[in-house]
């Protein structure tokens, strides 16, 4: 069984006991959260599609940890002008584990 759920503005295909990285969510490590914006749910050949979301369907998850992603370097340069600018960025992520999918 799997579901496609909208988490923090992004769509993820999730299954039970799967761990995924999403944008930083509010909550402490070990806390339970629920997502009720389920767009599609499939159990074998039985597929249910929401318009736009399924009524009464929800995905339960547990926050495993909060962490930062890899550093992304941004380098700007204009040739022959002596302009160089180096900047870096690390995105904040939350690692969650899917505990249950209910329809």
Structure write-up:
It contains no helices and eight strands. By secondary structure, the chain is an all-beta fold. The chain has one domain. The strands form two sheets. The chain has a four-stranded antiparallel beta sheet with strand order 2-1-5-6, with no helix packed on it. A four-stranded antiparallel beta sheet has the order 3-8-7-4, with no helix packed on it. Strand 1 and strand 2 form a beta hairpin.
Helix content bin: under 10%
Q: What pattern of helices and strands is seen along the backbone?
A: EEEEEEEE
Beta-strand content: over 45%
Radius of gyration: 19 Å
The parts where pLDDT drops under 50 for at least 5 residues are none
Shape descriptor reads elongated
Number of domains: 1
Biggest β-sheet, characterized? Answer: 4 strands, antiparallel
Give the arrangement of secondary structure elements.
Layout: E1 2-7, E2 10-15, E3 19-23, E4 32-35, E5 38-43, E6 46-49, E7 58-78, E8 83-102
Antiparallel strand pairs: 1-2, 1-5, 3-8, 4-7, 5-6, 7-8
């Amino acid at each position: 069984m799997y579901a496609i759920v909208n988490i923090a503005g992004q769509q993820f295909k999730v299954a039970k006991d799967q761990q995924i990285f999403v944008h930083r969510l509010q909550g402490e490590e070990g806390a339970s959260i629920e997502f009720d914006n389920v767009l599609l749910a499939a159990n074998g050949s039985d597929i249910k599609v929401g318009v736009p979301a399924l009524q009464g369907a929800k995905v339960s998850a547990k926050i495993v940890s909060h962490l930062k992603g890899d550093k992304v370097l941004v380098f700007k340069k204009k040739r022959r002008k002596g302009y160089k600018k180096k900047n870096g960025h690390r995105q904040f992520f939350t690692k969650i584990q899917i505990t249950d999918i209910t329809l």
